[in-house]
Amino acid sequence: MSTDIDFGALRAAARDVMTRAYAPYSGFPVGAAAISEQGHIVTGCNVENVSYGLGVCAEVALVAGAVSAGVRRLRAVSVCDADGRILTPCGRCRQVLAEFGGEGLIVDSERGPRALAELLPDAFGPSDLACAERDR
Ligand SMILES: O=c1ccn([C@H]2C[C@H](O)[C@@H](CO)O2)c(=O)[nH]1
Fold first, then answer.
1. pTM for the whole structure
2. Interface TM-score (ipTM) > 0.90
3. How far is the centre of ligand 1, averaged over its atoms, from the C-alpha of 69 (Å)?
């Protein structure tokens, strides 16, 4: 898919925030960077915890930071590991990103940019809740 997204800038921002990751338990620091509809770059890194299950993925930290900064619509995201290798977000993070990027969110990957719809087909979304409310 062809886009006008500056993935070079997004990857650089992801690598930069990755250096601030807190990942003493996995030893696997991750950085994530996204560009908003308004052109703002927002970032996040993974933040682990001694109670392992409480760790937060870089993508979740990114979304929390974005919303806290008043950014709610994401256009594209890039995620990387300590070597700068591009990662595709885990399943939970795909759902978290879908909330603020929708199925058109462009996700960087080793195979080129991909729409989130391809990585999270038939996603559970707001229209499903609307159906439940209608049926109630
Ligand atoms: O897309 C990913 C994949 C993994 N991790 C984190 C979770 C955990 O802290 C570490 C090892 O899985 O990497 C992320 O933040 N994002």
1. 0.95
2. yes
3. 23
